[in-house]
Amino acid sequence: MCMRVAFRVARTAALSAPFGARVFPVRSADDAEAFSEWLSTRTLVAVDTEATGLDVFCAGWRLRLTQIGDAGSAWVFEAGGEFESVRRAALYSGVGLIFHNAPFDLHALGMLDLFPFAFDTAMMSHLVDPSRRHGLKGLTTDLLGSDAGEGEKLLKAHFSANGWTGGTGWAEVDLRNEDYVRYAGLDAVLTFRLFEKLKATIEARGMGHLLAFERRLAHLMAKLTDRGMLVDKAYAAQLGVQLTADAQVAEDKAAMMGVSNPRSGKQIREALLLAGVKLTKRTPTGEFSTAEAVLETVDHPLAEAVLDLRSAQKSNKAYVAGTLELLGVDGRSHPWIRPLGARTGRMSVSKPPLQQLPSGDPTIRRMFVADPGNLMGASDYQGVELRVLAALAQEKVMLQAFKDGADLHQMTADAARVSRKVGKMANFLTVYGGGPTALASQAKISHAEAKKALRGFNRAYPGVKRWSDTVQSKAARDGYMVTTVTGRVLPLDRDRIYAAVNYLVQSTARDILAQAILRIEEAGMFDNVLMLVHDEVLWQAPKAEAEEFAVEMGRIMSVDDFYGVAITTDSEVYGPNWGSGYE
DNA sequence: TCCGAGAGCGCC
DNA sequence: AAACGGCGCTCACGGA
Asked: Does domain A230-333 correspond to CATH entry 3.40.1160.10?
């Protein structure tokens, strides 16, 4: 009997959280035993983690809490605590695991091998409504009607009361602070509730196959993040010094012209107007624009200095410093990949933004090098979006042209009686939903000429406009949404129905690459993949096999017959670094 | 001091 | 008839 009493007393007091959630810290053997009892009756649990910050791969980053819960309660484990083995065994017990942003938590836990057991409510939210914001707080408010922001507000107040910011508080707050533990536990509970809601919608809509597909893809993308890319640190540091100097030169020039901060649009506008420069183009808020397209037409040394500064600054801060500051303790860059980053389903890459490195010169890309003994290379689709457009529209002339291996840009140019360059722009703009105004400004031709060119396009490929009109009117009838051939539902902004064509093309092209990635894995070639850039796979292979690998990669990615169009690839061995492909 | 919208710009 | 799509990052600026 005495033992029983001691048993009870050793339980840590539960915390009450908003929305009827109960939070149980696991700090004693009895807590752990109660947890295990609870777990033994579950087949599915929600899991969340708290850490010192978001940069999992950087020195000093630490996991702090792991929360495991269901619709009513959450159990909170302290990192480095006595019961880590209990937590670990629980996660590996075979139960289904629900995360909100699984890639972050599974990286934080160092348990990527649990991906096959993982569901992700952020991923599910994207499948249900890609245009929604997928943050836990916003989703909870939208779907569950409970404003989950309250707990975070309390915590942020606690942070600032202690002199911490939103950035530092997560590392500083006491592991046993009640608001912290309550907030942490609540997130797991809300994630569980979200899952139930989203799962029902996905099942009702018959989107289970897409969910299964995305779960496989997400696992592979997490492996890419984990693999990362080797960085030539010495080269990068030296490049940073050079770019800093370049920026300083431009800044000094601007200063001599009386502009103390050439990063300020306000100062640039005022100085140029004062110098008698006529500015006409305006931004949406009505101010004179100082964008590159404007400044390159301005005959004034200040314009040149500003553009030089912007260019050096961008490369230096966003790419070089951005890469070095986020470098992992292993000397590698570990970019975050969001497999469903865009509302069209396109992937996005951040920290660092490897899909946006300058392609006009190799200096930035040269920071990223192949592993010893390997060469880098890339395989990309040849004009995939135009091919997808032809396929979806079943445009006869385009279909035949692709079969014949004709030059589509030249064909458009011939039909519209413009240069190949303008013909190419017209092709792209059609994919983007652009009109004559856009073509005129981009091609630097008159509005009348642009109209004529687009009329030429429509004459040459009548099926495109026919399909576009059909898609748009159907989209309006269907409640402003379109469905891709892969079953993705894409909502449209009602004042931009014309974007339907682009959404369908972009989303379909994304799925063509995504499906290729799964084929690459099945072929046993995924371990060589380093990065994806929308229509391109960047890879590395041992020197002696690189050429052969390039051919095989191109073959696996190719699609022989996509609704009547071949989706062809171009494969190239770059060299020892990413930049060697851009020299 | 912090936060967020806006402008600008890099990519496909 | 006309309608340029999708991201991530940095900085300046203004309001809380």
From this structure: no
